[in-house]
């Protein structure tokens, strides 16, 4: 993977105590999403969950939108760490196709948690495909395709495989079509296996 790609994480120059407080608040927000869904993540709820005053949350993030953007960065960072350094099948050590399938399923779980924020972030097509998070995911998928010795233009194939993991499409499938994340994950695995079998 390109060494110039930025991994989403703590803010540059952030003090250790500020970073700890930030992580405490984001862990609380992430737990609320897992327990009650993203619509229940309010500044009050996060403050209560983290055991701090509401003013602390406002000072740290400014608004609910700012908090949700920070949560997105937080979850992106966790996913990146897992697929680069975590245990298999998502992390190194597994068959590249198994890693690719695990990546898609993990990406869908992230979209389920932060879909509305991701969809808003994806609204600018001009910037979307040069965002560090997309570039890193693209590089990872392309690397796995090369390791699996899939012929052809793997960069274009990586774009095609990332398209079904789009936040806007996921939100449409779950909200308008009533599909579950399990169904979408199964379809992702089926797509990967068909594409790699036909290309191999």
UniProtKB/TrEMBL annotation:
It comes from the Bacteria. One of its GO terms (molecular function) is transcription cis-regulatory region binding. Gene3D superfamilies: Tetracycline Repressor, domain 2. This is TetR/AcrR family transcriptional regulator. Residues 19-79 form the HTH tetR-type domain. The keyword Disulfide bond does not apply. The lineage of its organism: Bacteria, Bacillati, Actinomycetota, Actinomycetes, Mycobacteriales. Keywords: DNA-binding. Pfam families: TetR_N. Residues 42-61 bind DNA.
